[in-house]
Structures are given as structure tokens and as C-alpha cells.
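Per-record layout

source: Micromonospora cremea
name: Major Facilitator Superfamily protein
length: 431
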Amino acid sequence: MRTVLRRPDFRLLFGGLLASMTAESILLLALAIWVKDLTGSDGLAGATIFAVIAPMTLAPLVGWFVDRYPRRPFFLAANLVTAVLLTPLFTVRDAGDVWLVYLVAALYGLSYITLSAALSGLIRQLVPVELLAEANGVLQTVRQGLRLIGPLAGAALYAAIGGWALAGIGMVGFLTAAAVVTALPTPQPAPPTVRLRWPAELGAGLRHLAGEPALRRALLGYGLGSLVMGFSESLIFAYVDQGLDRDAAFVGVLVTVQGVGGLLGGLCSPALVRRLGEVGTLAAGVAFFGPAALALAYPDLRLGVAAVLLAGVSLPLTMVGLHTLIQRRTPPGLVGRAAAATEAVVGGPQAFSIGAGALLVGFVDYRALFALVGVATLIAGGYLWRGRHLSAPPGARPPTPPTGPILPAPRRPADDADQQVATGSHRSPRR
């Protein structure tokens, strides 16, 4: 990771992202707590999270919109708009204003998808292909570190200074990110592509994901795992209550342990990508969740600590493997749509599994559900592992022979994404 952090452009981007990711980490839980204080309803507080997730259905439209504009100015503008979107929170006074919190939560969820798609394309432009895994690993390590302190800090700040001041802090984070991005050098623009009719462009990201073998297997395998991995969001409370016979607040201790595992996974993920390839790293991340879930089916504190630590390691491995694969195997002009489509394809099953887990835990033994999660994720990890050859590690990739006649000028070394899509029908033809 030191190599990519030595690059002034990425180091500058990293500084801006640190500010915006900090704002993100403190806002989400604080908004739900605010609704709980205003209404006294746990259900209405939980609906705040749903409001953030709901805009995921618009991901194809968001990706199409992102891909129509240059990455750096678009990312800058998106951070400015996100800061402005928080301003309605300053008018919230009582339970009658809860709709404003929901509105901000929904717009924030839409902004999150937009920023993620734009960031994926910006990193693809700024960072050489061989350093993509390191760049994604750095960002995932920071995200996992913020998971340790962000939600708790947000809750503490809300209790100390109130929701309006917290909204102001969030705005400062996004404005800081925008200010830092203005100092980034302008990346070399991607070659122009032929514009299709807008219905075809909307589905271009999904068609690319379905047409590229490595991406197709990655999303099928991870999607299968996601159908059950979300169960753990509810099952962990039953594990603490029924299994360990402890207060629900003890879940916070386990979340902290999981965050430590996330830091370890983020630090190790670039080395795993170099050794196993992107699909192999994704397979390891999904498969690691299997023994963790199986261990949680047996209520023992020492075993439980080891299990949540392993579950924490799995998350950044899956994210780094998947994001790096998308960036490597997608033409630059299509990265936004592919990244947004991935959010929808993966996030949909996750949202469904969270809701299903909350329902099932009421009448099915949590141990049986954890066993189901463990078996399903091991199967998904095995399916992914069998396809690891689709994204062999860089050292194991044979050189690709030149295509076409003699070129008029020396060409730059092509990355795997360009090689994969050079002859694919799913990419828009070059002008």
C-alpha cells in the first residue's frame, strides 16, 4: 500500500475521501437515533436505514448519468451537492418534521450510489492498473477503521450537540472532500465512444457484467452469498441474548472486534489479489464468512470472538476483489454504469436478506439460521474459487499477442480490462 500512497495524486484524493468517509460514518446511525428521539418508535427509526437503501433501485440510471461527464469535476460537484442535501436537517424541530429526515436519508442514499460510481471511475483514471488493488485496499482499510469509531462518535456527538450541529459537521466533511478534489490534476480523458440510444446505454453496465465471464461468476457467487449473509444483522442479537445471555449492548463489543478483523482484511487484501487474483480473493472473502457463521451457531464467547474477527476479515476481501475486478475488466467509459449496476445486483440480495433475517429469527432457532448461512456461504465461496482462473494473478497472466495490423505508433501496455473488452460485443465501438 505504500507504493500507491507515494503517488501525490492518490494521496491527495485519499485525504479528501478521508473527510467524506468520516462524515458518512457518523451520519447514518445518528439519523436513525434522531428519528427514534422524535417519535419514540423503533420501527420508524429502522425505516431511516430503508430510506437510505431504497434509491439503490435507481442505480442503472445513476451509472448512466455518471458516465456522461468527466470524472474529476463530476466527483467534485457530487460532493458539493451532497453537502447541500443536508441543509433541510436544520429545519427539523419535532415529530412532524420526521419526513424531512426521511427525505434527506433517501437523497443521501442516492448520493452515496453516485459518489461510489464516480469514485470507481476516478480511481481507474488516476491509478495504474497494477496498483488498483492497493488503492482499493487502502480505502477499505480506512472504511473498516471508521466503522470502529464512526457510528459511536456520531451517536456521542448527537447526544452532546444535537442533530443540527451533526448535520453541519457532515456538511464540512463533504465540502472538504470537494475542496481537496479541486487540487487534483486533470486525468487524461478516455477515448470517445459512440453514443447509443439512452435505453441501450442504461442497460450497458448490466450487459457488460453479464457478458464478461469473470464478472459474471463474481456477481453470481457473491449474490448467492449475499442472499443469506444479511441474516447475521439480526441473528447476532439473538446470539448475544439467547446464546451468551448478555445485554444487547454487548453487540457493540462484537462489532468492535469485527472492525479489528476488517482492518486486518483491508491490509492483507492487496497481497491476496496479487497471489490469488481478483476472483480468488473474492472467493476467500465469501468463504471466510462460512466458518464464522458456523462457529456462531455454538454459543461460546471465545469462539464467538474468533468468529466475528474472521467475519470482519471477509468483508474487505470481498470488496477489494470485486471493485478491482470491475475496474480492470471494464472500459473506462463504462465504469460508472458497471459500478452502479453492481451496487444494485449485490445490494438488492443484501437488503432482502436483512429483512428476511429479521423476520425468520422470530420463529426459527438462530443456531439453525447461522448453520444455513455457514453452509450457503461455503457453497458460494467454492463456486467462486472454481472460477479463480478467470482472473489469474498478474504474474500468472500470459502476455497477450498484439491484435490487428502493424500500429502506426507505439501503444501503451494494455491492461486486462482493455484486452478483455477489445473484441467483446458488449462495448460501444470506438470512433
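summary: The chain is about 75% helix and 0% strand. The first helix runs from residue 2 to 5.
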